[in-house]
Amino acid sequence: MYWQEDKDNESYHVPDNIVDVVFNIACRALPVDHAYALSRAITLVLPWFSDEEGAGLHTVHGAESGNGWMRPANPGDLVYLSRRTKLVLRLPRHRLGDAGKLTGASLDIAGNVMKIEQSTVRPLSTLTTIFSRYVESAEGMDESDFLKLAVAQLDRIDISPKKMLCGMENTIATPGRNIHTRSLMLADLSVEESVRLQQHGLGAERRLGCGLFIPHKDIKELRQALD
Fold it and tell me: What does pTM read for this prediction?
């Protein structure tokens, strides 16, 4: 854990050069580890996606638990999706028109069909507690070294973290290698820092869902749960 004192946030106008494009989808189920298959399917429709700076894929997540159902742990197991589930791409604004080519497409994701429906554009969040499910790590790297690496990477985009908490380890399988990741939450950023981190991300493999930050509940609630 990495912890410093609070600092008041200043008012900040959120730029719209990077946004989230939120697609309605019809998809019965996806494998737990679907990042590579989904990214590849998107690239078949949007060839520029794999090389576009600033582009990223939010992997699709069903509920962790509910009504007695627990999210499966085996990477090959299926997660069953509700109609409320969305596909979200983080994209530079100049690619919004091109991304519209996804609408109406049917993607084959490891044998599971995802039909892409209408989309809306969502600005980046102004919340100052943000979270990434997957930030690339090294196999066997302990929590302390992971946080030191994160601090160094954040310094490159002029972000001085005050409160960070890393969590679950995960592996994303690709044909070339297995990518080892940890979840990471940052709290008490300034609004400007929060938006900048959402724009730039952290680490590599953005097209596989790594290093993309989303709003999260307040860190005080999480600490109470951990305690």
Answer: 0.86
Q: 3-state SS of the chain: helix, strand, coil percent to 5?
A: 25, 35, 40
Q: How far is it, in rounded angstroms, from Cα 11 to Cα 17? A: 19
Q: Can you give the residue ranges of every domain in the chain?
A: 2-14+125-226, 18-122
- Rounded CA-CA distance 162/28 in Å is 41
Residue 168 one-letter amino acid: M
Nearest to 2 by CA among 209, 149, 139: 149
- The domains spanning 2-14+125-226 and 18-122 adopt the same CATH topology: yes
d(CA 106, CA 89): 16
Specify the CATH class of 18-122 in words: alpha beta
Domain 2-14+125-226 superfamily per CATH: Crispr-associated protein; domain 2 (3.30.70.1210)
Q: Looking at beta carbons, which pairs linking 61-68 to residues 24 or more positions away fall under 8 Å?
A: 61/133
Tell me the per-residue pLDDT of 17-50, one tens digit each, with 9 for 90 and over: 999 999 999 999 999 999 999 999 999 999 999 9
Instruction: Identify the CA nearest to 128 among candidates 14, 225, 205.
Output: 14
